User: What shape does this take?
Amino acid sequence: MSAALPRLKRRSDFLRVARAGRKWAAPGLVLQVRPHRRDERFQGLDPDHRPPLRVGFTVSKKVGNAVVRNRARRRLRALAEALLPVHARAGHDVVLIGRAATPTRPFAALEADLLAALKRVKALRPETDEETDEDADGPES
Assistant: This one.
């Protein structure tokens, strides 16, 4: 199992991403992404050590009761831990927002939603983008 991604925990971090970042809504989730500034300080971290990627999760009461919201959050967390270290550009803050479909949408569809959203907000790693295009064409021989 891989190490957990650094998290956004403070409300001000979430608001900063919402205010200054790029946003894309997919059927299963909403993605907000904001690149780090060079002069930005990170709470509790050595100034010379900058996290390559930080992620936050939120699911509103509109999605359902506490059980449903927690399930949606767990699914978003699993999605982020599986895809963001490999497919997202480093040096960004990422917020994943759960939608009504998040708890019941097939996991493969959520993965496709996240990859499409990363591409739309230009936060997909370039080498990942090329690999995806090669996979679509099939093996070359």
